[in-house]
Amino acid sequence: MAPRINLPPLTRSLLASLIIFTVLNTILKPQGDWVTTIEKPITSVGDGVPYLAIVPGSSIIYPWVFLLAAVVEQNVFGLLITGLTIFYGGRYLERAWSSREFTKFILFVAMIPNLLSFFIYALSFVVSKSDAALTTTISGGVAIQAGFLVAFKQLVPEHTVAIAKGLIRMRVKHFPAIFLFANTLSGVVFGTETALFLAWFGFFTAWVYLRFYRTSPSLSSAATGDGSVIHGDASDTFAFAYFFPEPIHTPIARLSDQIYNTLITFKVCTPFSAEDVDAGNEQAMARAEGGLPGLMNPNGRSGRGGGRREEAERRRALALKALDQRLHAAANRPQAPAAPAAAHMLGETNYEPERHDEQGRGEDERS
Question: How far out from the chain centre does Cα 72 lie?
Fold first, then answer.
């Protein structure tokens, strides 16, 4: 008997939509682009159909494309990458969050990056008067891929992924920076600026939504049944600077601090309180202890197996160390006039996660 692939409903629908609309877009392309697609099925781009993909000069009268374009790929390579992303990442996140929360997340990371990219090309036409800005095709799941990596950084940052039979081992928390760097380099060198825009806009959209707006049940209070919820994620390890390599934490922290203070001044954002940060750290620790499903085996529990137990202990140690350092810093800090809570850069705190050696031990470094 063939193995039964059990996928949550929205993940299954996304996969079906990706295949159907990608094939439909290929069939309905102008004849010249259709021939190019056959000749170069792996890397062809061509012009998308304006009522399926976003073509800035034509798609304004088809508003549904700002959502639909996320599941329209222009070549086989994009179809394969986005399909695998949805298959593995979608079923993991939908089961970890629920179908309703996963739907809201997909709506944000699919639609907002497409809209922002559309405005970038529209502005480019206004400035340069170049017809190329109006005929560029904006489509594909790059923004969804970026959003999923941000979500994994929140849920399983210390999960180690082995590639090439273990020759390459990398923790999930490093994936967003690598993804952004790869798309930025490709955009500059090979001219794939559309993917560059979608990658960065998808990253920012996902992070802002998860950091400030998503409402989730409090994992640390699940045992008591009090039904409390957490708004956003103010944990130390999900601050903006910690998505990037340690040597550039300080300049990114300063820049994001200035942006965050400006947003607070205009009442766009509400600053995190000390209680919010503590609750966020407790939530991160509860995720480490609670055993979220494994990335490649969503039906399992991360607490099963020696390697997963070590991973959970490592994440728990990070969260405990963050809380301990904040308590000591508060106790040793000299008294000063009260300052607004906006001093945190985009919710930033002074804690930087440990760097672990092969035995899981490490040293703390502060920015």
Answer: 20
Closest CA to 101 of 229, 249, 236, 246: 229
Nearest Cα residue to 114 out of 62, 51, 68, 148 = 68
Structure confidence by residue, pLDDT tens digits, 70-111: 999 988 999 999 999 999 999 999 999 999 999 999 999 999
Per DSSP, which regions of the chain are E strands? Answer: 160-163, 168-171, 215-217, 229-231, 355-356, 362-363
Q: Are 50 and 80 in contact (CB under 8 A)?
A: no
Between the alpha carbon of residue 181 and those of residues 138, 176, 203, 278, 312, the distances in Å are 20, 9, 12, 32, 28
pLDDT given for residue 361 in this prediction:
45
Find tokens 């004849």 and name the residue: 31
141 close to 70: Cβ distance less than 8 angstroms: yes
What tokens were used for 300? 């399992």
The residues facing 170 across adjacent strands are: 161
d(CA 186, CA 139): 17
N-to-C CA span, the chain: 56
Residue 29 to residue 50: CA distance in whole angstroms: 10
CA gyration radius, the chain: 22
Residues 48/139, Cβ–Cβ less than 8 Å: yes
Per-residue pLDDT tens digits for 318-336: 666 666 666 666 666 655 5
CA angle 354, 355, 358 (to 5 degrees): 130
